[in-house]
Design goal:
Elements (H helix, E strand, L loop, with lengths): L16 E2 L2 E2 H35 L4 H28 L1 H21 L3 H29 L5 H9 L1 H28 L2 H10 L6 H14 L4 H5 L9 H4 L3 H5 L5 H31 L4 H29 L1 H21 L4 H16 L2 H10 L6 H30 L1 H21 L10 H5 L1
Antiparallel strand pairs: 1-2
Helix pairs in contact: 1-4, 1-5, 1-6, 1-7, 2-3, 2-4, 2-17, 3-4, 3-6, 3-7, 4-5, 4-17, 5-13, 5-16, 6-13, 12-13, 12-17, 12-18, 13-14, 13-15, 13-16, 14-15, 14-16, 14-18, 17-18
Length: 445
């Protein structure tokens, strides 16, 4: 299967470091963070300025639901395709295309003149947004040192709350002056930094080794011949020549793949449902719309800290155990959010607690999930898990209102924030333990 080669074996001379990272590792982490920040800014731009778009373009009320559902479908298809492409052609190339799709979609959004053009623009943008997330995280996982890999992957996740926070600033400043079109043009600014930085980023040694093996395997006939091809990094040579989705459901990865997918789907379904109805929940308790904005701001701000704490502790005691603790406590916070709110301060506190733990657990979950898949199928595995997010978004859009009308706001919130977090917790109990600091190839072997 080839020997296990560590990243340090490929460092032939001392190199300058930035925050303890070599230049390439630093640039990979920076671009991943900026990319994730940018795509979340763009996504939240739409939700914040849609009333202005609707008024300006004279759109009917049903169009927001149609656009949101179409965006989720576009995201599903994009993530399913992007993963295998990154495993065969390179993470760097696919990453750049995701940024390009986002850029073009943002520009077309600003230029939209009606429902159809806006729908196409948002679907194109969402295809780039959804694909960028996991491709960028794969690059961080494969390009940073084993001992700090989980921390830096967790840091890159903070782009989610940072993006939503920056949206509040940008919309408040630019929308009154430039209108909704100006907001989307502003969303293009980070793209130039990312694209310029991408020219200086290299693929990881382990991916280049895998790519070379596959090229050599194509020149030989039969799986036995490919087994004699030498590799610097340990790899299951028989499975590495199979289609990557088949690899995910082979006996060695099947259980982990399914549990990680359900874990992510259930968590995101609950989060997306509440995201749709946070203003309605506030109203049900007698609070105003502006109160719900304040609650949302508290959640994203505190959530960023939850990401970092989870990433830090996960790098010390283990990412799986930290994720499970965070989910359990997040379910408790979600239960109090559903049944224990008597003032706006209590609502803000329990929403922030939910965000800190349940949403913040992603700071440990994402690096744990990424190191659970081998390099030969990591891009596909990560994107398949990301696919669950967008399935959850689609289902939340078509079922959340029905649940509220069927069981009431409080019980629905409990199901979304409490029960969903605990189901994800139970899925995590069935996944393998991974000791922090192991090289990626050591984990798989």
């Amino acid at each position: 299967m080839g020997k296990i080669a560590k990243q340090e074996q490929f460092t032939y001379a001392p190199r300058k470091t930035i925050f303890g990272l070599e230049k390439n590792a630093f640039l990979v982490t920076l671009t991943s963070f900026l990319g994730w920040t940018m795509v979340n800014m763009d996504s939240s731009f739409f939700s914040n300025v849609y009333p202005l778009i609707q008024k300006d373009l004279h759109l009917a009320n049903w169009t927001v639901g149609a656009i949101t559902a179409s965006m989720a479908v576009a995201a599903c298809f994009a993530t399913l395709i992007a993963g295998p492409l990154s495993d065969y052609f390179g993470r760097k190339m696919v990453f750049q295309f995701t940024i390009l799709f986002t850029a073009v979609g943002s520009a077309l959004s600003a230029l939209s003149g009606g429902f159809v053009s806006l729908l196409i623009a948002r679907c194109l943008t969402m295809a780039g947004n959804a694909s960028e997330w996991m491709i960028g995280q794969v690059m961080v996982t494969e390009g940073t040192p084993s001992k700090s890999r989980g921390w830096w992957t967790g840091v890159a996740q903070v782009g989610f709350p940072v993006g939503w926070f920056l949206t509040a600033v940008v919309v408040a400043r630019l929308a009154p002056i430039w209108g909704w079109r100006g907001v989307f043009w502003a969303g293009l600014v980070p793209i130039f930094l990312i694209l310029v930085t991408r020219f200086f980023v290299k693929e990881s040694d382990r991916f280049e080794d895998l790519k070379q093996f596959r090229q050599q395997a194509k020149q030989t006939e039969g799986e036995k011949a490919s087994e004699h091809t030498q590799t610097a990094y340990s790899v299951n040579k028989q499975e590495a020549t199979q289609f990557t989705y088949r690899q995910l459901f082979n006996p060695d990865l099947r259980r982990t793949t399914i549990l990680l997918w359900i874990w992510q789907f259930v968590y995101n379904y609950g989060l997306f449902c509440v995201a749709y109805f946070l203003p309605s929940i506030a109203s049900a308790h007698g609070f105003t719309l502006s109160n719900s904005w304040m609650v949302s701001a508290w959640g994203t701000g505190v959530g960023a800290i939850g990401y970092l704490v989870a990433a830090f502790l996960g790098n010390i005691v283990g990412r799986r155990i930290v994720s499970l603790i965070w989910l359990f406590l997040g379910g408790v916070a979600g239960t109090f959010f559903a049944f224990g709110i008597h003032s706006i301060d209590q609502m803000a506190f329990w929403w922030a607690a939910y965000y800190f733990f349940t949403v913040g657990h992603m700071g440990a979950y994402v690096p744990y999930m990424l190191e659970s898949f081998p390099t030969r199928a990591r891009g596909t595995g990560a994107s398949f898990i990301s696919f669950s997010n967008w399935v959850a978004l689609f289902l939340a859009g078509i079922t959340s209102q029905w649940m509220v009308h069927s069981v009431g706001v409080n019980l629905a919130a409990f199901i979304w924030l409490g029960v969903a977090a605990w189901i994800a917790f139970m899925c995590g109990l069935g996944t393998p333990k991974i000791k922090p600091g192991l090289d990626l190839e050591e984990i798989i072997n």
